[in-house]
Specification:
CATH superfamily: Vaccinia Virus protein VP39
Number of helices: 7
CATH architecture: 3-Layer(aba) Sandwich
Distance between the termini: 13 Å
CATH topology: Rossmann fold
Strand content: 15-25%
Strand order of the largest sheet: 1-7-8-6-5-2-3-4
Shape: globular
Low-confidence stretches: none
Number of strands: 8
Mean pLDDT: 93
Helix content: 25-40%
Radius of gyration: 16 Å
Largest sheet: 8 strands, mixed
CATH class: Alpha Beta
Order of helices and strands: EHHHEHEHEEHEHEE
Length: 217
């Protein structure tokens, strides 16, 4: 049951470009649509192991993908998509090496940062957010306990996101390299995949895209 997305004006970010070649042929693109239930077989132990192993192998060089321009995409999503209605607890799914956790921690009082790849977690700062090794398809969170779920370049498991999110909670979806992001879904697919009806805003920042969604009242 799709909802509605209001388009906000784009924001220019000088020098913003994709960190790596992505696109529809990237091996994680198929996994992205599979996780969201949009194509392919259901998520299973084999998929979990494949993705975990892939990102464990990428962890040592992951810091090379951060940049001020990518940070600016997150800043824009938080400023125009979230605003002042942040709340208490943010669940960051797929936190990687923790590059964006500090921005979330400035907005929410508590950030629980989950990550599937142990090698990514080992490189994340221990003093920002609560770090948890977990699969996004099986989050160690009670029903309705999160004021927000933040997914930055991360797989979307729609039913699980909806389960842990408070009734008036917010879903923040960011692809920092837009359609070139390996783990990419356009906002229309995000809102289609989530169970129920959702409304929100979307925009572009540099080449990045983001949307911020709440359940329709």
């Amino acid at each position: 049951m799709p909802g509605s997305l209001r388009e906000l004006p784009p924001v220019e970010i000088e020098g913003h470009k994709a960190s790596v070649p992505g696109g529809s042929t990237h091996p994680m693109r198929t996994m992205t649509r599979r996780a969201a239930g949009l194509e392919g077989e259901p998520w299973d132990d084999e998929a979990r192991a494949t993705v975990g192993s892939y990102f464990d192998g990428m962890a040592p060089e992951w810091h090379t993908r951060t940049s001020p321009q990518r940070d600016a995409v997150i800043t824009d999503a938080l400023t125009r998509g979230v605003g002042d209605r942040a709340g208490d607890v943010c669940l960051e799914v797929g936190s990687g090496i923790g590059a964006y956790t500090p921005q979330l921690a400035r907005r929410w009082r508590r950030v629980v940062a989950t990550e599937l790849a142990i090698e990514m977690l080992r490189r994340a700062p221990a003093d920002v957010g609560h770090r948890v090794l977990a699969d996004g398809a099986q989050l160690p969170f009670g029903d309705g306990q999160a004021d927000a779920v933040a997914l930055v370049n991360c797989f979307l498991f729609p039913e699980e996101v909806a389960r842990v999110l408070a009734p008036d909670g917010l879903v923040l979806w960011v692809n920092s390299s837009g359609a070139e992001t390996p783990i990419h879904l356009p906002p229309e697919d995000v809102i289609e995949a989530l169970p129920g009806r959702w409304d929100g805003v979307r925009s572009t920042a540099g080449i990045g895209i983001w949307c911020a969604l709440r359940r329709a009242s």
